[in-house]
Amino acid sequence: MPDTGREGRPSDAERLAWLDSGTSYFAGRLAGHDLDRPSLLPGWTGRHLVAHVAANARALRRLVHWARTGAETPMYASGEARAAEIEELARLSPEALTGLVKQTADELRSDLGTLTGPRWAARVRTAQGRLVPAAEIVWMRAREVWVHAVDLGSGGRFEDFPPAFVDALLTDVTGLWERRGQGPGLVLRPDDRQRSWTVSAPPPTGPPDEEGVLCEVRGTAARLAAWITGRGPAPDPAAPPVGRWL
Asked: How far is Cα of residue 47 from the mean position of the Cα atoms in its chain?
């Protein structure tokens, strides 16, 4: 896998390390957890969440196949098919689900090892419709296992995440909002970092003097990441409400 790391951007090797450590972290939060309990995602039990993580590995394997062969293979046939697969898998026993999530994670990791040279730059389409290089699959999976380890509700915390991964997550979310033109305008200024993240203010709908107004929000990087991904309260009581992430 070509290393494209540069200042401010994680290298491919670093992303692979996050994928592996996140897979282990998810497995650790899953061990012994009662999957019949509600997860922290509305309407989903632990069964649904683990089923989703397993189905996600299968879906990303389809993107690896697309990148390797050039044969277009979407992550999911449709939104309905994705939901139906999660419901079907959620009916498995906890033991079967735990085994399945490990099996599918191992299969995806093995498949990623088959991508070489220019195949990492092959364009594939995410479930949100974005065309991205196949190298992005590694980040997509790392993000999935780390964040959903918190959603299990078994003690996972953003404070446990590798600091550089938290930074990359802040970059990912704020970059997505920038591309969407999604407000509000924010400056995220972590107390434990020497940098900040900015989301441009959307075009004003009020008086002209409101144009370009950015709200500065402070807190630790982990708390800011939890907040902007919808996994925690605003670290600053003056922070404005924010929209969806994915």
From this structure: 19
Tell me if 217 sits within 8 A of 225, measured CB to CB: no
Q: Is the pLDDT of residue 238 over 90?
A: no
- Tell which residue, 197, 211, 202, 210, has the closest CA to residue 180: 202
Burial status of residue 60 (CB atoms within 10 A of its CB: 0-12, 13-18, 19 or more) = buried
Residue 4: per-residue pLDDT: 33
Look up residue 195 and give its two tokens: 């940098």
Q: What letter would DSSP give residue 224?
A: H
Dist. CA 232–CA 245, nearest whole Å: 13
For residue 90, give both structure tokens. 């959620």
- Please state the rounded mean pLDDT for residues 200-207: 67
DSSP state of 166: H
Contacts of 111 (CB under 8 A, 6+ apart): 61, 64, 65
207: confidence class by pLDDT, cuts 50, 70, 90? low
Distance separating alpha carbons of residues 82 and 52, to the nearest angstrom: 9
Look up residue 3 and give its two tokens: 């290393």
Distance from the Cα of residue 94 to its chain's centroid: 24
